[in-house]
């Protein structure tokens, strides 16, 4: 059972470079999320998508863009990476109704921006 | 997030009980959650409690909710070394934003 799959697991960028983090889920979930995790700050929501074709800003959206390509896939793009974006990025998905808040997480992408 | 607060670290001996505490701010939260993160992994849902309950027990886990004080706790009985992880509490949908708000996490270290 794959669940939520994120790629890549590790990435090092130079300031100003761009990259896309990929996420796919095989649980037929409607909602998908991107969080970043920084030491001592827990997880902060970057963007989320309540359904295919819709995206909404979370708590810390600046410097990021997202695409809900289809029901399975939700990608996060850094157009011009900055050192402040060094973090661990988690993708998550959830179902509907009472399952909306029961998030399933990927294993994360560790990103360093030099 | 700053709206959900947890202590950063807890150390216990194997076999003892662990109590991890959390305070939250949004009294309209429908559910409150505990997630567990093992090293190098994503978060996994551990347990949750509906806001109209005071207590929920699930095997070695006991969740206590004090709505008046907006205080949530997770008790792990007979703590094992495999329980060593970071534990996050989370409160539910607020202000129309359909996502969870997480605390900063409590690192539980279990000494053999």
SSE string of chain B, helices as H and strands as E? EEEEEEEEEEE
Low-confidence stretches of chain A: none
Q: Which value, in Å, is the CA radius of gyration of chain A? A: 13 Å
Oligomer state equals: heterodimer
Q: In which range does the helix fraction of chain B lie?
A: under 10%
Tell me the distance between the termini of chain A.
35 Å
Q: Main β-sheet of chain B, in a few words?
A: 6 strands, mixed
**What structural class should be given to the helix and strand makeup of chain B?**
mainly beta
Roughly how much helix do the residues of chain A carry, as a percent range?
under 10%
Short description:
The complex is a heterodimer of chains A (114) and B (112). Chain A is mostly beta strands. Chain A has strands at 4-7, 10-13, 19-25, 31-38, 42-49, 56-57, 64-68, 74-78, 87-94, 104-105, 109-113.
């Amino acid at each position: 059972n794959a669940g939520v799959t994120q790629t890549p697991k590790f990435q090092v960028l130079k300031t100003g470079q761009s990259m896309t983090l990929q996420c796919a889920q095989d649980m037929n979930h409607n909602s998908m999320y991107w969080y970043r995790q920084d030491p001592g700050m827990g997880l902060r929501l970057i963007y989320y998508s309540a359904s295919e074709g819709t995206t909404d800003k979370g708590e810390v959206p600046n410097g990021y863009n997202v695409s809900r390509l289809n029901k399975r896939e939700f990608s996060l793009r850094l157009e011009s990476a900055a050192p402040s974006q060094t973090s661990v990025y988690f993708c998550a998905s959830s179902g509907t109704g009472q399952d909306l808040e029961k998030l399933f997480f990927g294993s994360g992408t560790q990103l360093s921006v030099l | 997030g700053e709206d959900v607060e947890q202590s950063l670290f807890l150390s216990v001996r194997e076999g003892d009980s662990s109590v991890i505490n959390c305070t939250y701010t949004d009294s309209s939260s429908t559910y409150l959650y505990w997630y567990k993160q093992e090293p190098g992994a994503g978060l996994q849902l551990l347990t949750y409690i509906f806001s109209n309950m005071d207590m929920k027990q699930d095997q070695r886990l006991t969740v206590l909710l004090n709505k008046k004080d907006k205080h949530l706790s997770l008790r792990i009985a007979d703590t094992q070394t495999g329980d060593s992880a970071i534990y996050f509490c989370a409160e539910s949908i607020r202000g129309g934003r359909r996502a969870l708000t997480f605390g900063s996490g409590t690192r539980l270290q279990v000494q053999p």
